[in-house]
Design brief:
It is built from 6 helices and 2 strands. By secondary structure, it is α+β, with helices and mostly antiparallel strands. It has one domain. The protein has a two-stranded antiparallel sheet. The longest helix has 21 residues. The radius of gyration is 16 Å and the shape is globular.
């Protein structure tokens, strides 16, 4: 089987698993409202909170924040274009990722997109870069963003 066929097969398996894989992340509105002058970095940390409570290792937190930023940016696209953007993401994934891993990734991104739309529907800031630092159990995130109206 050619590499192109393998990637296509992996995408198809991932789509099937994404349809079947329920997300265990909460979409509920948090009990404590954010201050009206929130920062995008605080919003990203807030979106990622359900995952951050599950995984505390520094390398996992880095991945969680990167996936959350990716989901935030994808959420800025019109609904009909989001699956195309996710398809482009799939094409750039390492070939050694299995269909189940890809399915979990896409399911997580879908859940984070839904949380972004629920909690920050009118925030239209595209995140260009981010930097996460971890020191003494303190997580600090800085982002560079620009407005897309």
């Amino acid at each position: 089987m050619s590499n192109k066929s393998k990637r296509k097969n992996t995408r198809q398996v991932a789509k099937q698993k994404r349809r079947r894989t329920p997300s265990n992340l909460s979409l509920a509105v948090p009990s404590q409202p954010l201050p009206p002058d929130f920062k995008i970095s605080a919003a990203i940390l807030h979106l990622a909170e359900p995952l951050r409570t599950l995984y505390r290792e520094p390398h996992r937190l880095q991945a969680i924040i990167s996936i959350t930023v990716m989901a935030w940016n994808i959420a800025l696209f019109p609904d009909e274009e989001q699956s195309h953007v996710q398809g482009m993401l799939l094409e750039s994934l390492p070939p050694q990722l299995g269909g189940e891993d890809v399915g979990v990734l896409l399911s997580t991104i879908d859940t984070l997109i839904a949380r972004k739309k629920l909690l920050y529907p009118h925030v239209r800031e595209y995140i260009l870069t981010h930097n996460l630092s971890l020191a003494d159990n303190t997580v600090t995130l800085t982002v560079a963003d620009f407005s897309v109206r």
